[in-house]
Amino acid sequence: MQDESIIKAVLKGHTAGYAILVDRYKNIIFDLCYKYTYDYSEAQDLSQEILLKAYKKLSTFKNSSKFSTWLYRIGVNTCIDWVRKNKKYSGTISIDQDRYIELLPSQNPVPEDIVVDSEKRELLRNAIHSLPEKYKTVIILYNYKNLSCKEISDILGVAVNTVETRLYRGKKLLRDKLLKPCNGGEYLWNAVK
User: Fold this and answer.
1) Is 181 helix (H, G, I), strand (E, B) or coil?
2) Locate the RNA polymerase sigma factor 70 region 4 type domain: which residues (predicted)?
3) Per-residue model confidence as pLDDT tens digits over 97-131
4) Distance of CA 183 to CAs 177, 186, 190, 191, Å?
5) Helix (H, G, I), strand (E, B) or coil at 187
6) CA dist 19 to 52, 81, 117, 150, Å?
7) pTM value?
8) What are the structural domain ranges in the chain?
9) Quick one: which of 133, 149, 59, 56 has its CA closest to 93?
10) 35 close to 83: Cβ distance less than 8 angstroms
11) 95-193: what CATH class?
12) Rounded to whole angstroms, how far apart are CA atoms 68 and 89?
């Protein structure tokens, strides 16, 4: 059953149909929340909040974009609000499948390699987390959610050129942060590579 058909039914009073949409998108929304919170419990709570917001605002969905894009927009905005309210969380971005900087573990990792890989991920997480919100959001959506610039444009409600510019500038800022000398004169970039 198509999302639009389910939405029409829910708006006509068949509210149980919303459970189908929740089942369809709950994992995607949870994954998005986890990229912002890096905390399982917080991500669960945030996911529920997003899905509840979407339910309450369902009548505002106009079919001008896909339901998933509309839901993502609510999700991203809610996650950004959460980050602003919870400054105590640092290094809140998970490194799972990064298209920008590859952190590939060894084929047969020894305990030292596992620790080094973990430290590299933490350095990268902290660097991404310290970026201004507009760059961090684009990097998360592009690198971790594998969304196109057009999809990100639809979610954020900005021009594709703006997304491309933010992605370029965000990567440059990230690269600059990782090229700063750290312990013993070694560059963070080298520690991450």
Assistant:
1) strand
2) 122-174
3) 333 333 334 445 555 555 656 677 777 777 888 88
4) 14, 6, 12, 10
5) strand
6) 11, 25, 39, 29
7) 0.66
8) 1-89, 95-193
9) 133
10) no
11) mainly alpha
12) 28
